[in-house]
Specification:
Layout lengths: L10 H4 L3 E6 L10 H11 L4 E6 L4 E2 L6 H7 L5 E6 L2 H14 L4 E5 L2 H10 L23 H7 L9 H13 L4 H9 L9 H7 L17
């Protein structure tokens, strides 16, 4: 799940930012995985999630992807992505997945020290770790750091700096709230790893408020 590795920021503002990816492998368990993926989705949604989706669905939760509708598509899927903003939610989901023992690979993306600590607490052993080595090259051509923190939450580069900067200006002027702005910014990211709570916090809002009540906003 390398597209979630390059989230830019400080340890402080990344500590409440986790992604989880259940992924079937071609030639191993990709044939008819629907029932297992539905069980994983049920476990995912049993905790305090922020966003979810997948490229095969073509949209995310903040774009109106209903879980009941999504479940019906999973016979033809091979993975589900979800994002969380609380370590206890991640820990609880991993405990439930461990107990379910569905035989599908689970990848957790976040600060490596925190992910390793969670695994240790519930008796899981890290299988593989992939780390981002940072940014090299002509960094002067990049957007400012605050914009980078937001656009790098979409690992497929579907969120552009002009959108972030435009929405940020509206937030500063009080035209929209940070929570509303975070949903507008996150909508181009279809796979579900865009963390609207972190985005709202970065724009001066309250991470605790979340954005589940904002999903129908059109600006």
């Amino acid at each position: 799940m390398s597209h979630s590795l390059h989230r830019f920021g400080t340890k402080e503002d990344l500590k409440n930012d986790f992604c989880m990816y259940a992924r079937c492998a071609r030639g191993v368990n990709r044939d008819n995985p629907g029932d297992k993926l539905r069980k994983i989705l049920e476990i995912y949604l049993s905790e305090d999630y922020v966003n979810y989706g997948s490229s095969h669905a073509g949209r995310s939760f903040i774009n109106g992807l209903d879980p009941r509708e999504y479940k019906e598509t999973l016979d033809h899927a091979y993975g589900i992505i979800i994002s969380f903003s609380h370590r206890e939610s991640v820990k609880s989901v991993l405990e439930k997945l461990k107990e379910a023992d569905l035989g599908i690979s689970i990848v957790v993306s976040g600060l490596i020290e925190e992910v390793a600590k969670i695994c240790d607490e519930i008796g899981l052993t890290l299988h593989t770790a992939t780390l981002s080595l940072g940014i090299y090259g002509k960094k002067e051509l990049l957007p400012d750091d605050e914009t980078l923190k937001i656009i790098t939450m979409c690992g497929h580069s579907l969120i552009g700096a002009p959108l972030v900067q435009s929405v940020s200006e509206k937030v500063k002027k009080g035209t929209i709230t940070p929570e509303e702005g975070s949903v507008i910014i996150g909508k181009p990211c279809t796979c579900g790893i865009f963390n609207t709570r972190r985005c709202a916090s970065l724009m001066g809002g309250s991470e605790a408020k979340g954005c589940k009540g904002c999903v129908s906003i059109e600006k």
